[in-house]
Automatic annotation (TrEMBL):
UniProt feature coiled coil, ranges: 3-64
InterPro entries: Spectrin/alpha-actinin (IPR018159), Spectrin_repeat (IPR002017)
Species this chain originates from: Ptilorrhoa leucosticta
Pfam family, one: Spectrin
Keywords from the UniProt entry: Coiled coil
Protein name: UTRO protein
Length: 254
């Protein structure tokens, strides 16, 4: 009777493993929304816990069959053979569910990381847009233009590492068919805004550099003219002081 019960337990265990495999490993999942992906991650975590909890039952079966084999070798030998099959299938099921759970957790982590990088770069683009707008109505002063140019250039020196991460993470998920529509839309919007603002900022940078160069050249010319007028003023003052008649002066002084 004990052998019959153990045989029944082994059959039930094998049936449960077959159902678990069908439910957790053989279904085709499509992750078209973050909610679907998150639910799949939580489901696989529960599946892993459920499967691992069966380890106690498997151990009890194994101990009972070993004990029976010592008392009734013929019955125990047959059950031991069936037990080995169940043990192999159980170990395989554990490994496969662990693997799928780990994969889904990695995918979810990849998605969260992508969102974080997009947030960082969006904040940088907001800053860049603000700096570009600030250069629109500058006072016609060399210091103001120079400060605006330096401020814009400091933002443009932003490293490209984050954009590389965005591209690689997005492509990894899209290649796996995971959230591909949502990610493609997000990347398209981000890249379009990045290209537009980058070109606008570089164009404004060139304009400011040219404006700054012109102002510096004008300032230099005014300085030279001012120095020349100062020299002339001192020379004329000395002529007046010495009461020199205009017709006695050099032509340029006249």
């Amino acid at each position: 009777e004990k052998a019959v019960n153990l045989k029944k337990d082994l059959a039930e265990m094998q049936e449960w493993m077959t159902q678990a495999e069908e439910e957790y490993l053989e279904k085709d999942f499509e992750y078209k929304s973050p909610e679907e992906l998150e639910n799949a991650v939580e489901e696989m975590k529960r599946a892993k816990e459920d499967v691992l909890q069966k380890e106690v039952r498997v151990k009890i079966l194994k101990d009972n069959i070993k004990m029976l084999a010592t008392k009734v070798p013929s019955s125990g030998q047959d059950l031991a053979t069936e037990l080995n099959v169940v043990l192999e299938n159980y170990q395989l099921l554990c490994n496969r569910i662990r693997g799928k759970c780990h994969t889904l957790e990695e995918v979810w982590s990849c998605w969260i990381e992508l969102l974080q990088y997009l947030d960082l770069e969006s904040a940088w683009l907001n800053n860049l847009e603000e700096r570009v707008q600030m250069t629109g109505n500058l006072p016609d002063k060399l210091d103001a233009v120079n400060d605006a140019l330096e401020s814009l250039e400091s933002v443009l020196r932003h490293p490209a590492d984050n954009r590389t991460q965005i591209r690689e993470l997005g492509q990894t998920l899209i290649d796996g068919g995971i959230l591909d529509d949502i990610i493609s839309e997000k990347l398209e919007a981000f890249n379009a805004r990045y290209e537009e603002l980058s070109h606008l900022a570089v164009s404004r940078q060139i304009t400011l550099e040219q404006q700054l160069q012109t102002m510096r050249e004008t300032d230099h010319m005014l300085q030279v003219l001012q120095e020349g007028l100062g020299d002339l003023d001192r020379q004329l003052t000395s002529y007046l002081t010495d009461r020199i008649d205009a017709f006695q002066m050099p032509q340029e002084a006249q």
